[in-house]
Amino acid sequence: MLEMRPDCERCGTDLRADDPGAFICSFECTFCAACTDALDDHCPNCGGELMDRPTRTGKALERHPASAERKFKG
């Protein structure tokens, strides 16, 4: 199950689990749309492709809350 990390690792922008606009690689490194564009859709940590992260809403989000651990490297 995806961690649904709460922030962009590059700029620290909040990324809610129930909103679109987050991008992840296969290791779940997480970035906002603006940073993903700046990174040319490639993860700076592992070199993997950044893809749209699915959203988690409603009861699924209640049962499986998003991670609260922030990864911003600022």
Give a brief outline of the structure.
This protein is α+β, with helices and mostly antiparallel strands and 74 residues long.
Describe this protein's structure.
The chain is 16% helix and 11% strand. With 74 residues, it is an alpha+beta fold. The protein has a single domain, classed as 2-Layer Sandwich (Herpes Virus-1), CATH 3.30.40. It has a three-stranded antiparallel sheet with strand order 2-1-3. Strand 1 and strand 2 form a beta hairpin. The chain is globular and about 35 Å long.
Share of residues in helices? 10-25%
| Contiguous helical run count | 2
Largest sheet: 3 strands, antiparallel
Shape: globular
Widest beta sheet: strand line-up: 2-1-3
Strand content: 5-15%
Mean pLDDT: 95
Query: Based on DSSP secondary structure assignment, what is the total number of beta strands?
Result: 3
Query: What would you report as the Rg, rounded to the nearest angstrom?
Result: 12 Å
CATH level-3 fold name: Herpes Virus-1
Encode the helix/strand succession as letters. Answer: EEHEH
Give the termini distance in whole angstroms.
27 Å
CATH domain class name: Alpha Beta
Class based on secondary structure composition and strand pairing: alpha+beta
Instruction: Give the CATH architecture.
Output: 2-Layer Sandwich
Regions with little confidence, pLDDT below 50 for 5+ residues = none
Total domain count: 1
